[in-house]
Sequence to fold (93 residues):
Amino acid sequence: MIRFRVAEGEQAEFAVRLEAAVDVLRKQKGFVAAQTGRNVDDPELIALNLEWDSIGNYRRALSPYEVKVTAVPLLSQAIDEPTAYEDLAEVLP
Fold:
């Protein structure tokens, strides 16, 4: 889970950069899914949830040149907080 604080007037440009970052990351080994969302109480908070098959593949996915040029600059704008979580429980219907 990666969160960003983006002024409402900058969100259109940010969305383009976010889409490009997810596009290069989804091509990396171990990518499972990505979801983005905006907080309903604080519309300047944008969340990117990336799902990988392992933490190792997530970390290795940040190494290719295309990722360093496209995704890393965007990711460096994230709120400085832990971003990697492991599943503790899953509830299914």
